[in-house]
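Risk register update: the risk of archive-format incompatibility is retired. Evidence:
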Amino acid sequence: MSRITSIFFKGLEGLLVLLLAAMVAMVFGNVVLRYLFDTGIDVSEELSRFFFVWLTFIGAVVVGRENAHLGVETLVARLGDNGRKVCMVLSDLFIIGCCAVFFWGTWQQAEINATNYAPITEISMLWVYGIGYFTSIGLGLMALLRILRVLTGRISEHELKTFAGDYSGDEAHALRERLE
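Archived output:
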């Protein structure tokens, strides 16, 4: 199962790279066309905005897997393992609640967005805003699985440390320290 999950997230990272590269190419191409030829490609402006939305929300799921979202570790860093576990479960419950609200809001807006079309590409706006389904399910599922790992005692020491802001065992952190 972890191999399938790893492949899935590698695919998401590849998709993020493609979205970013497409955005850069479209925006740069439009700038060149506007300055040199006094023209532009209207579709590229609209698509680059849509790609940015997808990039942001897919990126939130990828970053959520790596526990790299912003956090306030001031209190958690002072707690022992049991206190960290309690805070982890509470924060994950809060995340699940926010994901449920986000999913419900996406669901409520789906009918409106399905019948609303982008002015240039005429893409249904559900394709743009429907990314809320993916993000809310992805982040909510990861939070739920982490709660289950905490409750069954399968949470790793490394996860507890990173939750408290201690990245000393992280390879990237060790590399940065060696370079400084």
